Amino acid sequence: MPARPLVGIVPYGTPLHRGIGELPLSALRWPLGGPATDDTRRVRDLGAGDHLLVYPKNGLYLRRRLGTRARISVMVVEPAAMHRRHLRALPWVHRRFFRILTRDAGLVRRVPNARLFLPGGSWIADPDKVDTTKIRPASIVASSKRGLPGHRLRHEVVALIRDRGLDVDVLGRGYRPFGATEEALAPYRFSVVIENSRENGYFSEKLIDALLCRTVPIYWGAPDVGEYFDAKGLIICNTLSDIGDALGDIGQEAYMTRLAAIEENRRRAMGYRDFERRAAELLLAEAARSD
After folding, report:
1. CA-based angle 30:52:46, to the nearest 5?
2. How far apart are the C-alpha atoms of 79 and 86, rounded to whole Å?
3. In this structure, is residue 246 part of a structural domain?
4. How far is 72 from 74, CA to CA, in rounded Å?
5. What is the value of pTM for the model shown?
6. 232 and 134 in one domain?
7. Is 109 exposed, middle or buried (0-12, 13-18, 19+ CB in 10 A)?
8. Chain center to CA of 74
């Protein structure tokens, strides 16, 4: 019985100036299992049936040869506000790749080898070991960034919280640093969860981690989030005013009325935790259909 093809993932931000073929296999992630940690081979040594999954980089489009026999696929996971140039370029260079994984439905319609893929992700190692006992009303996590609409909105919410004297813990590098992700979510009944951008199909670990912690998100982000999660377990907001209104009702009763939806959303969120494994499994399924 032939060995299952390998699926390696080039970590986000990996420099490729020497060419993708020169990367050591030990520098890749292997969500379905891979070479031994002391394997000295490089990407150029992968076989024609193996897969390499990369995040978008201009160099992938411009190099005449990519330096490996493996099937290369690209995964566009950031919002259009960050990856618009890649979303524009990929229809012209899509033949360079085995598959393009994206949550952009427009790209899927235009490009024959693009596949709809909603990443999600999580920073919580083992949700089942997290104590989700609720001892505080609400939190918000904000960094010092201000470049994208969601970054700026977080700071506006912090200002609103302080102006109104609300009982909401303000956490994050921009304010009060914390340790593990669950520390900012698990003890809280509610948490203000703001994506970096508001686009269909774009929900990140920010939402997934809140749901895994049985914390109700006061959510600004994907307008179609209700297609993927039970809206009764979310407080979906479109404006700063909506968020302010939601923060006016963060008591025990408001939480308890949502318990069934909270558990349902946690169940669904578990399926979005390991997006690299899901991506690898999708590539193998696509290869099985095409071979």
Report:
1. 90
2. 11
3. yes
4. 7
5. 0.93
6. yes
7. exposed
8. 15
Domain identity same for 281 and 264 = no
Residue type, 258: R
Number of domains in the chain: 2
The one-digit pLDDT tens for each residue of the chain (291 residues) are 457 899 999 999 888 877 889 999 999 999 999 998 889 999 999 999 999 999 998 878 877 778 899 999 999 988 888 889 999 999 999 999 999 999 999 999 999 999 999 999 999 999 999 999 999 999 999 998 899 999 999 999 999 999 999 999 999 987 999 999 999 999 999 999 999 999 999 999 999 999 999 999 999 999 999 999 999 999 999 999 999 999 999 999 999 999 999 999 999 999 999 999 999 999 999 999 987
Query: Would you state the structure tokens that stand for residue 220, as one six-digit string?
Result: 């600004």
Q: Which residues contact 189 (CB under 8 A, 6 or more apart)?
A: 134, 136, 137, 138, 215, 216, 250, 251, 252, 254, 255
* Domain match, 234 and 172 both: yes
Which domain does 196 fall in, by range? 127-270
